[in-house]
Design brief:
Distance between the termini: 62 Å
Radius of gyration: 18 Å
Strand content: under 5%
Structural class: mainly alpha
Shape: globular
Order of helices and strands: HHHHHH
Length: 141
């Protein structure tokens, strides 16, 4: 039976025998956003994967965060935990051949930076409006 050490597991997961540091992982996730955008339009992508891809892409391109960055600690956690978690879940739901094709098509797609579209902020604004409405209802009634 093979004993999995942390280094051995990282090598196995990386596939290249190199260790991925946090910066490299974040960079890889950033390159997956355009691929998820393309997978969202692909007819071979399952419906559940399209739902998660839509949420991940909309959140990544939204100029408004769910938790504003000026809130200490929590404001950064959504960028560090929530978005990468959405991307990882979505990548696992997309068939491998579709994801590889979308990654190949998306290389250099947003090399000048991701587009910020205010349209993608609508779901975040709606979530905040629901939270505010619920708070007002609890406080006043």
């Amino acid at each position: 039976m093979t004993r999995w050490t942390g280094e051995k597991l990282r090598e196995e997961l990386n596939g290249r025998g190199e260790q991925l540091n946090l910066k490299e992982r974040a960079g890889k996730l950033k390159t997956d956003i355009p691929a998820l955008f393309l997978a969202l339009k692909d007819h071979e992508t399952p419906v559940l994967a399209k739902v998660f891809a839509g949420i991940a892409v909309a959140y990544a391109l939204s100029p408004i965060d769910l938790i504003p960055d000026f809130i200490p600690v929590l404001g950064v956690l959504d960028d560090v935990i929530l978005l990468p978690a959405l991307i990882v879940i979505t990548v696992k739901l997309i068939p491998a051949h579709v994801l590889e094709r979308c990654r190949a098509q998306s290389e250099g797609m947003w090399k000048n930076g991701k587009p910020k579209k205010w349209v993608y902020a609508i779901p975040v604004v709606l979530i905040w409006l629901v939270i505010i409405a619920l708070l007002i209802k609890v406080i006043l009634f």
